[in-house]
Amino acid sequence: MAKHRHALPLLQDRLFITDGGLETTLIFHEGIELPEFAAFVLMDNEQGRTILNVYFSRYLAIAIEHKVGFILESPTWRASNGWGEKIGYSPEALEKINMDSIRLLSGLRDAHETEQTPVVISGAIGPRGDGYVTGEKMTARQAEAYHTVQIETFSRSDADLVTAFTLNYAEEAIGIAHAAAAAQIPAVIGFTVETDGRLPYGQPLDEAISEVDAVTDNTPAYYMINCAHPTHFKDVLAAGDVWTNRIRAIRANASEKSHAELDEAEELDAGNPEALGMQCQELRSLLKNLTVLGGCCGTDNRHIAAISKHWKKTGTDHDYFPNAGNHV
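Request: output the structure for the sequence above.
Response:
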């Protein structure tokens, strides 16, 4: 049974952290081959599941040290039918992997959750296409049909919510929001942006968020920016318009390089963990509801430790959040 689905602590004014770049860590630090960037293949055997347990335990230790909440994201960004078919997984095999992934995270929560470190379990989903390149767009209805299978699987699990990562156009986000609402599970919409702060398809971030909210009647629990460096979108947020209040989460890339440059890179650009920690902390002045921080491509536990340290430097959650404990 989902523990926090009907009262998400993420919607309260307290800090939650999450992990870094799972796939880039596995590939570049652990030397593990991931077909189509699919980390869910590790769920196929005991050795792979052990690797995932060790990976997440590193980050849980950081959350416990800093007395902040933690989001466990399932390794299922590629575990939808389209991507699974490309690497030889049947719909039935993918359903089992999605369910087993949540069970693995439930075990980690049972082992690590404390009163000061509540742990939320999220079913991670990704775009039907490439996260960096829009390619052929779906309509919102087509996106709902495509993502419903995976979202309904998570709704039958212990997942507290689903999180859509690296979306690059509004119609897919709308379809995901509708599918999650139909399955009665909260959804987080994560958009990625280019170095100009616009979605890869060219739409400004504020227009994308406003469009999704307008069409879905504000269904998403909140929005996230992921797979981009803070320098890519800080100026977009600086205006301080009302739409920025819907952004609660940032999962930043380690590198300041563009998506195209990262695609062509043969070596990992881990950037500067301390600098990234400071840059994420500086976003607090631009996003009044920012409560979730984590990493994306190129980040690892060093970056998340730095982010947590710099967040706490300016005081306790209560010092920063005048309405601590209240829902926003």
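Residues 77 and 167 are 11 Å apart (CA to CA).
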